[in-house]
Amino acid sequence: MITEKIFDKLKILAESAKYDVSCASSGTQRSNKAGTIGNTSAWGICHSFSEDGRCISLMKVMLSNNCIYDCAYCINRRSNDHPRATFTSQEVSDLTIGFYRRNYIEGLFLSSGVIRNPDYTMEQMIAAIKHLRVRHRYNGYIHMKVIPGCGQELILESGRWADRLSVNMEIPTEENLKYLAPEKNYETILRPIRMITEKISENREDRRKFRKVDKFTPAGQSTQLIVGATNDNDRTVLKLASRLYTQRNLKRVYYSGYIPVNDYDRRLPALKVPPLQREHRLYQADWLLRFYGFSVEDIVNDDYPDLDLALDPKVNYAFRHPDMFPVDINKADYYMLLKIPGIGPRSADLIVSSRRHSRLNSDHLKKMGVVMKRARYFITCNEIEAFRKVRNLNPEFVRQLMLTGQKSSDAVQLSLFKSADILYPSLK
Amino acid sequence: MTILGFDNSFDGFLTLVFESYRLRIVPDVIARAGENQSWLFSNLVFIPTEEEKADRVWRKIIEKTSKENADRIYRVFVSEVPESAKMIYEFIRLMNEKPYNIEADFSLPPVLAISKLHMKVAREADRIRMFTRFQKTAENSYFAAFSPQYNVLPLIIPHFSDRFADQDWIIYDLKRNYGFYSNIEETVRISFDKLPVNPVTGQLEEPYHDPDERQFQTLWRKYYESITIEPRRNYKLHRQMLPKRFWKYLPEKNCHGNNSQS
Fold first, then answer.
1. Residue A162 is part of which domain span?
2. What are A371-381's pLDDT values in tens digits?
3. I want to staple B224 with a disulfide (CB 3.0 to 4.6 A). Which of A41, A422, B217, B252 is the partner?
4. How far is A353 from chain B (nearest CA, A)?
5. ipTM of the complex, rounded to two decimals
């Protein structure tokens, strides 16, 4: 029987957890084992979408929103006067299984405020996921937060039961973290991240050597960075993210545009709207780092320490390197194709496999899903005239064209020719 | 006009392809049995299924392209989109004419057409995996019913059989009036003459629900409402990710379970 109390607790503890942006249920493929309920899918499955457009994959709740800390950016800081609740481990476990069996969710995302101390909190969280795994014989996805400052053996224990662990960095520089969260320090955050990385690679080694070794955190670890709560620029954020990817093998770094939950705190900027556009550009840059072969310096550097909010980072890269464009679609290698605005890994794959048989024209490209609206300034193929390209039109002019959005194609045609006339009168 | 007909099975279709080569007939229309038969009085040749001939065509597709491509073709076929049979037929013709593997040559219209239809079918299958909602029944089993755009149940059943291995469940296609029943031992195809189900929402009639079912639906709706971050509200994106035609089946978008606890 579901009591009134459960309704209230779920409401409070979901509201407290929702600011954590991570929701992925991906990273590990595991079939059902006889006698258990559930499996995990390598790509993850979303089960619903909230009215802010975000995917709902996992039941994202806090075990408790009581917290001994007083971090300026956090809704659950101890000095906030708002409703508090704590689940028992069985309540979390029963709710998860009830939702899972109805196919509402892909699994559980369990976080918590710090109750009493980090060790005590971790013990309670482990009890909840252990209940789910052992009592309900649950074989689905679990993502658990690691509370910075907890003992090493508790991290080891969590990694036995959870698919993914995450330690949130929250603030991109130590100096600013100390300013906003004086009770936290980088060492207690970086130590568990390093330890999880080492354990995962040790575990991989062991499983190669011995037959019966349980997996440790099979879906890897992730972290979250809050952007816009401090004066850290995008270069700082992306450099940190890149180090976490290359040196610590993180699966994902999440960027969370700061939402002014505690607008009374003078240490925080007074934002009217959260920096959602900046967050969006950071995710684009993150994808360029992970899947497109870009380096941090390609995207942000001394001259451009922040991302352009108006146009995406790939277009900006192309504007800074007009000498590399236009690219010949029928000749360029895969990585060069990926550098072209409007072309992603999927269309680059299709281009490489199709052009073996026939020369491609813009019609083919459109059908393959290339966004010609962007790509056309940066490519040549059979029939697009070469002079209408970024190199000849000059980056600033193309930038204006892309920004005005090209409402009427006639007007664009006209202005393109006009500019070509001005720049290259002899072409006529 | 030449019309070749088959029994609507995949093997039947492959046999048809075999026979069209053997008889040197290129059909103008390929008719599935049970399809709207406005050509009833014209010269329809019905091709009976022969497994051996079907096998040879299937192996040929794998040989000239790849197993992945053959599977893709199968998925496009079971979608039951009217023009899919003709599309696949043209693909096989081209596949035999060209000296190379055409599966990735998107400058050929049938290749691109199949790839596009496959994407649509695969997306619908994904959405069914995402948006299927089981209702717990009074008999401790789980029930879901809805009307998918394409006939995707055969594609998604293995996923549910694996995931919900320890529970009895039924997934039912209301539009095509068939479904699958699964228990710990096996998964079988079923069809009901009369279901105690609301044909629009797929909700079971009240006496068939587990006593806690409505409360669970309400609980899920409350969770769903709590998770939205107000300053981020983005209705357009929401509609794009969660198409409106699915809303009627989703407890979080409805008050199927309202009253008691709200």
1. 4-293
2. 988 898 888 88
3. B252
4. 6
5. 0.88
Choosing among B133, B134, B160, B229, which should be mutated to test the A contact, i.e. which has the most A CBs within 10 A? B229
Looking at the whole model, is its pTM more than 0.90? Answer: no
Give mean pLDDT, residues A399-407.
73
Tokens (6 digits) for B201: 């929402």
What is the tally of structural domains in chain A?
2
Does A366 map to a domain?
A: yes
Residues shown for chain B = 262
- pLDDT for position B261: 38
Kindly give, in sequence order, each residue whose CB lies less than 8 Å from that of residue A128, ignoring residues fewer than 6 positions away. Answer: A63, A87, A89, A90, A92, A93, A110
pLDDT grade, residue A410 (50/70/90)?
Answer: very low
Interchain pair A6, B219: CB under 8 A: yes
Chain mean pLDDT for chain A: 88
* Predicted confidence band of residue B40 (pLDDT cuts 50, 70, 90): low
Contact A339, A327 (CB under 8 A): yes
The domain boundary residue, chosen from A258, A293, A328: A293
Q: Are A322 and A249 members of one domain?
A: no
For an interface test with B, give the residue of A45, A52, A91 to mutate (most B CBs within 10 A). A52
pLDDT tier at B255, thresholds 50, 70, 90? confident
Give how far the C-alpha of residue A371 lies from the chain's centroid of Cα atoms, to the nearest Å.
Answer: 23
Task: Tell me the one-letter amino acid at B244.
Answer: K
Which one is predicted more confidently, A384 or B179?
B179
- Model confidence at A414, pLDDT cuts 50, 70, 90, reads very low
Buried b (16+ CB within 10 A) or exposed e, B122-133: bebbbbbbbbbb
Instruction: Based on the fold, state whether residues A248 and A380 are members of the same structural domain.
Output: no
Q: Which CATH number is A62's domain given?
A: 3.20.20.70
CA of B105: which chain A residue's CA is closest?
A354
Q: Using an 8 Å Cβ cutoff, are B197 and B144 in contact?
A: no
Question: In the numeric block, which tokens belong to residue B133?
Answer: 């909602």
B135 with A102: Cβ contact below 8 A: yes
- Using alpha carbons only, what angle is made at residue B119 by residues B115 and B125, rounded to the nearest 5 degrees? 140
Residue A299 forms part of a structural domain: no
Residue A391 in any domain: the answer is yes
**The two three-digit tokens of residue A40, written as one number:** 């995990």
**Per the structure block, which two tokens stand in for A250?**
């993180």
B229·A52 Cβ contact <8 A: yes
- Chain A residues within 8 A of B228 when measuring between CB atoms: 18, 50-52
pLDDT given for residue A272 in this prediction: 81
| CB within 8 Å: A38 and B163 | yes
- Distance between CA atoms of residues A309 and A2, nearest Å: 47
* Chain A residues within an 8 Å CB radius of B241: 46, 49, 53, 55
| Chain B residues within an 8 Å CB radius of A37 | 163-167
